C-alpha cells in the first residue's frame, strides 16, 4: 500500500537533533559526506530546522542543497538565522498545504525563490500580468526566459485542427498589435 | 597590514610576514631586491616552493614566495568563452594571488589549491615568450595585461616589475600593456617613458562597495589621485567599473564616482573604460561563504547565466550599463567603452550592435592612437 505522504509524515521537530539521528537520516537519504559535514557545522537551531524541512519533504541531496542555499542567502541578506527563514510564515504556509510531496516541494521552492529574488519576482509578476492582459486564447502559451536571463519569449500553440490553429493564430496576431505586447518586450529588456 | 616606507606616496604598503625563496633563486635580481627592501622580514629558503603553500587562502596573502615560473607566462583571457563577446585580451602572469582581499575576488576559488602569493623570478623568460608572439604577428596589435591573477602594481614597491615591463612595451609597436590595479603604487612609473604603449588602469567602484568589499586596497580618492599622477607623467589610463554591484543607491554611488574621477583626470587621455556586472560561480560562492566574505553580496539577486556564472538578471544589468554609458558619454562622447563577459544580445541592447570577434580589441587599440 502506498504510504500517505501527508497524513503520516511526522510534524517538524522542535528539539535539537542529535548527530546520530542526523547521520542516520542522511544515510537513509544517501546524502554526501560534504553535505553532512556542512550540516553538522550549523548552529543547533538551524540544523534542527533544516532537518525538519528535509524530513517533511523527503529531500534528496541536491534538492536539500538548493533550498538550503537560497535559505542561507536570504538569512545572510536579512541578518536572520537559517531557522528563521525556514519558519517564516510564507514558507510554513507552503509546508502546511495538503499537497502531494512533489507538489509541496515545488510550492516550497517557489515561495523560497520569491523570498530570495523579490525584485526579480516582482518583474516576473508584472510580465505575467501583461501576458494575461494580451487576452490570448487558451491554446496559446507564453513562456518567459528562465530567471528572465534572455530577451526572447517562447510561444507555444496547441491546435487539433486547421480551424483551431487559425483561431489561435488570429488571437496571437491581434495580441501582437496591442501596446501591451511592446510593453512585454520593454519590461524584459530593461528593469523599470 | 603593516606599514613600510617606500616611494613618495603616503599610503601604507603591503609587507609580507615572511619571504620564502626557492633554492637556486636566492641570487636572482628579484630575490635580492625584495630582501633589500625587507631587511627585517624572515627569509626561508626551500628546495620545493610547494612546501610554502599555506593552509588557508588568507594565510597565502600574508607571505611572499619567490620562485621560478615553470609553465607559460602568456595566456588568453579566460573570459573569452563561447557565447560571450570577447575582447581578445592576453594575460601575462608574473605573479599569482594578491595582497588585497576583495570579497568577490575569483582568486578565492581559482587559486584555492595553491593560494601562496608568488612573484616569479624569470621575468625575462616571460618577455621572450611574448616577444615571439609579437614578432610572429606584426600585423596585429595585442592588448596585454598583468592584472588577471594578481594586482599589477600591488607588489611593485618590492619587485620593481614595472621598471622591466614599461621599457619593454615602450619599444614594441604592436602591443599595449595594461597595468590593472586597485593600489596607488605608481612611484616607479613616474620616472619611465611609456611612449604611448602603456595603459595604467584602475578598477573603481562606488564608495560603499570599495569600503565594505575591498579591504587592503587604496581608497577611491587615492586611486583617482594616482591616476592623475600617471596621466601627468604621460600615460594613458584605463578604468574598469567592474564589478558593478546593484546595491541600494547604486545610481547615485556610481554617478558620484564618475564625477569624482573626471574632476581630477582628463577624459581625453582615457584609453578605455570597461563595464562588468558582478558575477560569481557556485564554487566562488562556496569559498566566500566558507571565509564569511562578502555576505551582503551573497544575498544579491544573482541568477544563473548561459556560462554558468551568476549575475543580476539581465534587465537590471542592461539598465546599469545604459546608465553608466549615459553618464560617461556626458563626460566625453568619444570615450572608448566596452562591456565585459556579456553575450551579443546584451551588447545589442546597450550599444545597438554586437561587435565581431577581434573587433573590440581593434577599436580599443585604435581609439586613442
Set down the secondary structure blueprint.
The complex is a heterodimer of chains A (192) and B (369).
Chain A: H1 19-29, H2 33-40, H3 44-57, H4 61-78, H5 82-86, H6 89-96, H7 101-116, H8 118-133, E1 140-143, E2 154-157, H9 162-176, H10 179-189
Antiparallel strand pairs in A: 1-2
Chain B: E1 18-22, H1 29-37, E2 43-46, H2 57-60, E3 63-67, E4 74-76, E5 89-92, E6 95-96, H3 107-110, E7 117-120, H4 123-136, E8 142-145, H5 156-159, H6 161-170, E9 175-181, H7 187-190, E10 198-203, H8 207-213, H9 220-232, E11 236-244, H10 250-264, E12 270-277, H11 282-291, H12 295-298, E13 302-304, E14 310-312, H13 314-331, E15 337-339, H14 344-351, H15 359-367
Parallel strand pairs in B: 1-2, 1-3, 3-7, 5-8, 8-9, 9-10, 10-11, 11-12, 12-15
Antiparallel strand pairs in B: 4-5, 6-7, 13-14
Helix pairs in contact in B: 9-10, 10-13, 13-14
Keywords:
heterodimer; A: 192 residues; mainly alpha; two-stranded antiparallel sheet; 10 helices; elongated; disordered N terminus; B: 369 residues; alpha/beta; eight-stranded mixed β-sheet; five-stranded mixed β-sheet; 15 strands
Description:
The complex is a heterodimer of chains A (192) and B (369). With 192 residues, chain A is mainly alpha-helical. Chain A is 64% helix and 4% strand. In chain A, strands 1-2 form a two-stranded antiparallel sheet. In chain A, helix 4 runs parallel beside helix 7, helix 6 (89-96) packs antiparallel against helix 7 (101-116) and helix 8 runs antiparallel to helix 10. The longest helix of chain A has 18 residues, at 61-78. Chain B is built from 15 helices and 15 strands. Chain B has helices spanning 29-37, 57-60, 107-110, 123-136, 156-159, 161-170, 187-190, 207-213, 220-232, 250-264, 282-291, 295-298, 314-331, 344-351, 359-367; strands at 18-22, 43-46, 63-67, 74-76, 89-92, 95-96, 117-120, 142-145, 175-181, 198-203, 236-244, 270-277, 302-304, 310-312, 337-339. The longest helix of chain B is centred in the last third of the chain and has 18 residues, at 314-331. The interface between A and B is medium-sized, with 23 and 21 residues.
Amino acid at each position: 500500500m502506498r504510504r500517505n505522504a501527508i497524513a503520516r509524515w511526522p510534524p517538524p521537530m522542535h528539539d535539537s537533533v542529535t548527530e546520530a539521528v542526523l547521520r542516520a537520516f542522511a544515510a537513509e537519504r544517501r546524502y554526501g559526506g560534504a553535505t553532512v559535514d556542512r550540516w553538522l557545522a550549523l548552529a543547533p537551531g538551524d540544523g534542527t530546522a533544516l532537518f525538519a524541512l528535509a524530513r517533511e519533504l523527503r529531500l534528496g541531496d541536491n534538492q536539500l542543497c538548493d533550498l538550503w542555499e537560497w535559505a542561507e542567502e536570504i538569512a545572510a541578506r536579512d541578518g536572520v538565522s537559517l531557522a528563521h527563514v525556514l519558519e517564516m510564515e510564507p514558507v510554513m504556509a507552503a509546508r502546511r498545504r495538503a499537497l502531494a510531496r512533489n507538489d509541496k516541494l515545488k510550492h516550497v521552492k517557489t515561495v523560497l525563490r520569491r523570498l530570495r529574488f523579490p525584485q526579480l519576482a516582482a518583474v516576473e509578476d508584472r510580465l505575467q500580468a501583461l501576458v494575461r492582459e494580451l487576452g490570448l486564447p487558451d491554446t496559446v502559451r507564453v513562456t518567459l526566459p528562465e530567471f528572465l536571463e534572455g530577451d526572447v519569449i517562447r510561444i507555444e500553440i496547441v491546435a487539433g485542427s486547421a480551424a483551431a490553429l487559425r483561431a489561435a493564430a488570429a488571437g496571437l496576431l491581434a495580441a501582437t498589435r496591442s501596446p501591451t505586447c511592446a510593453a512585454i518586450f520593454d519590461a524584459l529588456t530593461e528593469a523599470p | 597590514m603593516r606599514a613600510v616606507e617606500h616611494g613618495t606616496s603616503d599610503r601604507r604598503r603591503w609587507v609580507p610576514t615572511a619571504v620564502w625563496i626557492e633554492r637556486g633563486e636566492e641570487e636572482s635580481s628579484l630575490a635580492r631586491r625584495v630582501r633589500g627592501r625587507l631587511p627585517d622580514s624572515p627569509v626561508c629558503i626551500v628546495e620545493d616552493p610547494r612546501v610554502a603553500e599555506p593552509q588557508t587562502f588568507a594565510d597565502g596573502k600574508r607571505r611572499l614566495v619567490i620562485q621560478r615560473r615553470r609553465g607559460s607566462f602568456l595566456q588568453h583571457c579566460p573570459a573569452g568563452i563561447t557565447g560571450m563577446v570577447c575582447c581578445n585580451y592576453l594575460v601575462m602572469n608574473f605573479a599569482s594571488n594578491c595582497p588585497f582581499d576583495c570579497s568577490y575576488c575569483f582568486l578565492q576559488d581559482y587559486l584555492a589549491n595553491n593560494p601562496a602569493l608568488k612573484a616569479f623570478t624569470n621575468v625575462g623568460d616571460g618577455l621572450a615568450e611574448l616577444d615571439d608572439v609579437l614578432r610572429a604577428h606584426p600585423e596585429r596589435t595585442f592588448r596585454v595585461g598583468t592584472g588577471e591573477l594578481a594586482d599589477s602594481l600591488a607588489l611593485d614597491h618590492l619587485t620593481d616589475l614595472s621598471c622591466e615591463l614599461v621599457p619593454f612595451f615602450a619599444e614594441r609597436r604592436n602591443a599595449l600593456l595594461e597595468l590593472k590595479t586597485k593600489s596607488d603604487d605608481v612611484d616607479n612609473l613616474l620616472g619611465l617613458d611609456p611612449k604611448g604603449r602603456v595603459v595604467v588602469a584602475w578598477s573603481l567602484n562606488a564608495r560603499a562597495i570599495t569600503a565594505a568589499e575591498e579591504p587592503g586596497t587604496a581608497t577611491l580618492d587615492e586611486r583617482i589621485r594616482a591616476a592623475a599622477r600617471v596621466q601627468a607623467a604621460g600615460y594613458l589610463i584605463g578604468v574598469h567599473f567592474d564589478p558593478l554591484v546593484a546595491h541600494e543607491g547604486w545610481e547615485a554611488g556610481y554617478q558620484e564616482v564618475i564625477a569624482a574621477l573626471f574632476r581630477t583626470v582628463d577624459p581625453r587621455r582615457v584609453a578605455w573604460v570597461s563595464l562588468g556586472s558582478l558575477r560569481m560561480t557556485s564554487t566562488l560562492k562556496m569559498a566566500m561563504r566558507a571565509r564569511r566574505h562578502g555576505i551582503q553580496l551573497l544575498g544579491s539577486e544573482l541568477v544563473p547565466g548561459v556560462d554558468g556564472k551568476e549575475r543580476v538578471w539581465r534587465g537590471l544589468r542592461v539598465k546599469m550599463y545604459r546608465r553608466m554609458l549615459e553618464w560617461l558619454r556626458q563626460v566625453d562622447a568619444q570615450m572608448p567603452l566596452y562591456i565585459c563577459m556579456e553575450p551579443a544580445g546584451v551588447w545589442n541592447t546597450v550599444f545597438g550592435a554586437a561587435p565581431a570577434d577581434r573587433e573590440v580589441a581593434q577599436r580599443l587599440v585604435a581609439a586613442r592612437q
